[in-house]
Design goal:
single chain, alpha+beta, 9-stranded mixed sheet, 4-stranded antiparallel sheet, 15 strands, 27% strand, disordered N terminus
Length: 335
Amino acid sequence: MSGVRQVAGERQEFVVAADEARERLDRLLARHVPALSRSRLKALIEAGQVTVGGRTTTDAGQKVHGGDRIALVVPEPEDPTPAAEAIPLDVVYEDDALIVIDKPAGLVVHPAAGHWTGTLVNALIAHCGTSLSGIGGIRRPGIVHRLDKDTTGLMVVAKTDQAHAGLSRQFADHGRSGPLERAYVALVWGRPKPDEFTIDAPLDRDPRNRERIAVRAGGREAITHVGIEDSFLDGLVAQVACQLETGRTHQIRVHMAHRGHPLLGDETYAKGFRTKTAKLPEAARLALEALGRQALHARLLGFEHPVSGETLRFESPPPADMARLIAALRDRSEA
């Protein structure tokens, strides 16, 4: 089975070797078809795109046998045109060139596998009509930067190609020679030391799990500046300000976990810290459960208007659920 090519639209066939007998079907495919993530392969199995011994199977955990003939069909990639959807937007600023919104938790920025509808792009198409920049492509019209699905806060979207080009240059420069500013507030486990520090650690896809990002030598440059703003419960939890010098996927979440201080509520990078939840006072524990996501908010966004040249700067306080968690932590700390 080694060396099987992954070509969309083609049927791939191979015979299971004797030493691969009794292995799970999804694991077998993941090892020998590295071009596809295990979650993608599992989805293909469940969609009936895999046969074992000539019979279609939808069981990703099915055990294979030596000599089984496996066939995999990878459909041609879809590129559906996003449709307008009446999703409410918290518009902070808008003119003919751009729009700044305060993104809520749970809103995916643009359509992708598993999220073809209900995204920020769908909402923007409904709000802006045909005035979104087309530079980002059919799935990402106007999108210059992103926030994770469950990260809240400020985002700017281009409504014209001129605005898109101007904003993209600023984000590519990461504010090193211009007015671009991006700052976040986060709640982390433990109190980092010293009070101010910089994390300079390259990031790349985790080879063991493509849905995760990891600090890896040879990865893309990633720099986060961190400052302590408050500390709660004798250092059990800290509130930190994070300023990005680069903008990589999951950057703050991975960098803080790498430092040993993952974000509260982060199910991907703070699994080893779940037991610490029991040390929280009841009000804070309930507030964290209600939050149901990583405690991270993009509270500051500044940039040069790509048309007028004016420096714009916007601030957003933490949303109500995160504010309740901070209040519960502070209330007990000051008791």
